[in-house]
Design brief:
By secondary structure, the chain is α/β, with parallel strands linked by helices. The chain is built from 16 helices and twelve strands. The structure holds 5-phosphoarabinonic acid.
Length: 469
């Protein structure tokens, strides 16, 4: 019986596997441990003072009760769930759905799905949105919209929301807005909060102190998950279990501590590209979620005291086996500036056997009788060994199975690793000041009051280019 716990194997990241120049030595790990332990002690102390609130979400029984009651109230009558949100208000919930619902969920007949079809609109592409409105047109009464925005101000989500609000009001009236709309936003303030309160729409909270990219285990990810039939009790139990594991001061018993220690060690010696490489289609959007978490949290110009540092590992997502035929040439023979975190699944929920046939050409007979799961495992192992043969350091994160429990562990593991990495890099992992300027320019270009001066400056700079080819 495989254990139900995620495991991290770092043997192939060590100097013994990939050489002194590219691997981490046991002595280096010993030397780095005091700093990691000190960071853990500090984080746990800060938690007692109310910081790092995402770590406490799994223990919040009230949150689970509220979300499940809302899912029971709104979900069952609906054939479609449309989520409007972007960045931290979308990537985590998309990852949960891809990991824990069948890959072709939307194509299954209603009786074989555990919930409505799901559409996540995390872009303002006009063709995509117009197409969605066409598809939903006749089905509007049985379509639930969940608009998710902590700030309530994000231009993309706000624009989509205004379109949907108009549609619902025209087609279904006030009653439709009450029955077909759930707003997930800040519990106290913000434009969406004020509007929802004034109109009496149903709302769910994004908890205070939990930033967008750390919010998947709040109503942001949990409500769509529960509506689509994902077992959120088990998800949170897995996350809670990992939250306890990552509080351990023993680096060897704490996977977040070991991950942060190694990834920080590689970063400081010039391996600044961190490739998350899951072997399993269901995990592909968790890699997308990781990409935002790692990039937005750790890419910073100044340290905690405001001094310039300009740090940040570059997260890269790859998917096994697809990207073996796209990226591995670069990964093995290009610059040795990357660390690979391969993710395997010990036992897939389903498997397909390759049949035997008299007509199978001799060159393909080795495949007969094997399963796709076995081939996937062999390809993962083979790619790791091939990378190691080229002296590329590899970590291996092992999922016994993909279940709500292990996915909850994975999410908490990477969130806690991100916090620790922030401490080791001495930066604030919870802000994203560099995102603001682009937002302000968008406001200016779209004519938002208060941005007139910037709009004039931008118009001067947006002259037709003289460098067109
Ligand atoms: O991680 C973050 O804070 C961001 O990616 C936000 O989630 C994103 O900008 C969307 O913000 P909001 O939820 O306020 O619409």
């Amino acid at each position: 019986m495989p254990s139900a716990t995620l495991e991290l194997d770092y043997a192939n990241a060590l100097a013994a596997a990939v050489g002194q120049a590219h691997g981490v030595s046991p002595a280096e790990i010993r030397r780095a441990q005091p700093a990691v332990k000190a960071a853990i002690v500090q984080i746990e102390k800060q938690r007692r003072q109310g910081e790092h609130r995402y770590r406490d979400l799994p223990a919040d029984r009230e949150l689970l009760r509220t979300v499940k009651a809302a899912a029971r109230r709104f979900g069952p009558r609906m054939n479609n769930l449309v989520v409007l949100g972007i960045g931290g208000s979308a990537l985590g919930m998309i990852a949960l759905q891809t990991a824990l619902n069948p890959p072709l969920h939307n194509l299954l007949p209603a009786g074989r799905r555990r919930g409505p079809r799901l559409f996540v609109m995390d872009n303002v592409d006009p063709v995509q949105f117009a197409d969605l409105l066409d598809v939903l047109g006749p089905a509007l009464p049985k379509t639930l919209f969940n608009v998710i925005s902590k700030s309530g101000e994000t231009a993309e989500t706000a624009a989509q929301f205004l379109i949907v609000r108009d549609l619902l009001a025209r087609r279904l009236g006030k009653k439709g807005l009450a029955r077909n709309l759930v707003v997930t936003t800040d519990p106290e303030s913000g434009t969406l909060r004020d509007l929802a309160d004034a109109e009496g729409w149903f709302t769910l909270p994004v908890p205070p102190g939990v930033g967008g990219r750390f919010s998947v285990l709040s109503a942001v990810g949990l409500f769509p998950a529960a509506v689509c039939g994902i077992n959120i009790d088990r998800l949170m139990a897995g996350a809670g279990e990992m939250s306890r594991r990552v509080a351990s001061r023993s680096v060897r018993n704490n996977p977040a501590a070991m991950l942060a220690l190694l990834l920080h060690a590689f970063y400081t010696r010039g391996k600044r590209m961190h490739v998350l490489f899951p072997y399993g289609y269901q995990l592909k959007d968790l890699a997308d979620w990781y990409r935002q978490l790692w990039a937005e949290s750790l890419g910073k110009r100044v340290d905690r005291r405001g001094q310039p540092v300009v740090v940040g590992p570059t997260p890269i997502k790859a998917l096994g086996t697809t990207d073996q035929h796209s990226q591995v040439q670069l990964y093995r023979e290009g610059p040795n500036d990357k660390v690979f975190i391969l993710v395997s699944v010990e036992k897939f929920a389903r498997d397909v056997r390759i049949p035997r046939a008299k007509t199978t050409p001799p060159a393909l007979r080795y495949l007969e009788g094997a399963s796709l799961g076995k081939l996937m495992a062999a390809e993962r192992r083979a790619t790791e060994l091939a990378l190691v043969a080229s002296r590329r350091p590899c970590l291996h994160l092992r999922f016994p199975r993909i279940t709500p429990h292990t996915v909850g562990q994975f999410i908490m593991l990477w969130e806690a690793t991100t916090t620790l990495m922030g401490h080791l890099l001495d930066i604030n992992p919870y802000d994203q000041p560099a995102v603001q300027l682009g937002k302000d320019y968008t406001y200016a270009l779209m004519g938002k009051p208060g941005y007139e001066k910037q709009a004039r400056a931008l118009r001067r700079r947006c002259k037709p280019s003289r460098y067109l080819v």
